[in-house]
Design a protein that fits this description.
- With 395 residues, the chain is mostly beta strands.
- The protein is 4% helix and 29% strand.
- It folds into two domains: 201 residues, no CATH class; 169 residues, no CATH class.
């Protein structure tokens, strides 16, 4: 069933500053992983560590070995206020600090989705804390709209993990040594770990057990800046050049259940949200086809009405919806080298109301959530800015 709503502008504003965490300063040899531990340490490093030469890293790259599960723990931020911070709609302006955690010289990856809470039937946009992670790169996103500074203790409280002089997220080992790289200046932090103020575009390195002799640092290839001129997504409109015919292909949904998603007539819409997909081939924006997932006898729980790229999610039950499911309903391939028949290297970006990042995982696993923008770039030249949108909120 279609329902018309008025237009709503979702402000997707400021860009994530394209800069390396800590600027990559400091001496020492290039370091692409765990640096060598210092020997004979007791209480503090036997040798004062140096700052390694910066390692180039693409935004979204996992750094370190998996050690903790994804997301906040049961004692962390699950939507309730934590450490004076509330969980709400994502901001439209973020910076970041980078956190590295080592155990006896081994780098452990900081989990994704710390401080992000998925949608519910009553809160269909979900929420995020002003401090959160979206991947396992170690980047901690920090909301800049409040003008507040944030502490390492607040992040660990949202994570729901311990932070003290002898225990860091369950890692027991003495000493616990902390160094901060702020703009290329490396200094040891000797105060209460929970009180450490997170430096924007800085790097915080926590070492349990044997310390390092060199502190790694990184320069990041961040997502492109946002286009300040929003693209209007008008109901039944067209965005981009015609490329694919309307509707599903012969291998797409024909009325039978696809990947657990049903096709029904007159389906209840208790859960009703929208995501957006933009496909850009060699610099040309291609219009998504209308009526993907819409058949004469039924509508799938995910479908399109027009050629704006808006994907409608309408269902009586809450579940996870992915980009792979949408492409299966459409009947088109989706991989790192093939998007709906367009072949080439695919670069993916995700934007949640200004919280943008490069996506480095399986494209099929990208979750489609309320007002999430997904941009798939195939070929060259690389896009110089991420599109922003003026949405119609529902239809």
């Amino acid at each position: 069933m279609l329902e018309r709503l008025g237009s709503r502008f979702v402000a997707i504003g400021v860009l994530l500053i394209v800069a390396g965490c800590g600027g990559g300063g400091g001496g020492g040899a290039s370091n692409t992983g765990a640096a060598a531990p210092a020997s004979g340490a007791s209480g503090t490093s036997a040798t004062t560590p140096t700052l390694a030469a910066a390692t180039p890293v693409i935004d979204g790259t996992t750094l370190g070995d998996a050690n903790w599960p994804t997301g906040s723990t049961s004692s962390g931020g699950l939507g309730q206020p934590v450490g004076g911070l509330n969980c709400g709609l994502r901001s439209n302006a973020y910076t970041y600090t980078h956190l590295s955690i080592y155990q006896n010289g081994r780098l452990l990856s900081v989990p994704a989705n710390i401080g992000t809470v998925g949608p519910t039937m009553t809160a269909q946009t979900g929420c995020a804390y002003p401090l959160h992670t979206v991947d396992a790169s170690g980047k901690i996103r920090m909301d800049t709209t409040t003008g507040a500074s944030y502490t390492l203790g607040q992040f660990f409280a949202i994570w729901g993990e311990t932070l003290g002089a002898s225990n860091v997220a369950g890692l027991n080992g003495s000493p616990v040594t902390i160094y901060v790289n702020d703009g290329g200046t490396l200094s040891q932090y000797k105060g209460d770990p929970a009180s450490l103020v997170l430096p924007p575009h800085g790097e915080v390195t926590i070492m349990t057990g044997t310390p390092l002799t060199q502190i790694p640092t990184y320069t990041w290839t961040d997502p492109p800046p946002f286009d300040p001129n929003p693209v209007t997504l008008a109901y039944l409109g067209v965005v981009g050049s015609q490329y694919w015919p309307a509707g599903n292909t012969a291998t797409g949904g024909n009325g039978a259940t696809v990947d657990g998603l049903i096709c029904a007539a007159g389906m209840s819409e208790l859960y009703h949200v929208h995501a957006h997909l933009a496909i850009i081939k060699d610099g040309q924006w291609l219009a998504m086809p209308a009526n993907v997932g819409i058949l004469s006898q039924c509508n799938y729980e995910m479908h399109t009405h027009d050629q704006t790229g808006i994907i409608h999610i309408e269902t009586p039950t809450l579940k996870t919806f992915t980009l792979g499911q949408f492409f299966d309903i459409w009947g088109q391939p989706l991989s790192s080298t093939n998007v709906a028949g367009i072949t080439g290297n695919v670069v993916a970006y995700i934007n949640d109301n200004g919280d943008s990042r490069r996506y480095m995982g399986d494209l099929r696993n990208i979750e489609l959530t309320s007002l999430r923008d997904v941009t798939l770039q195939i070929g060259t030249p690389p896009i110089s800015s991420l599109p922003t949108y003026s949405w119609y909120e529902s239809q």
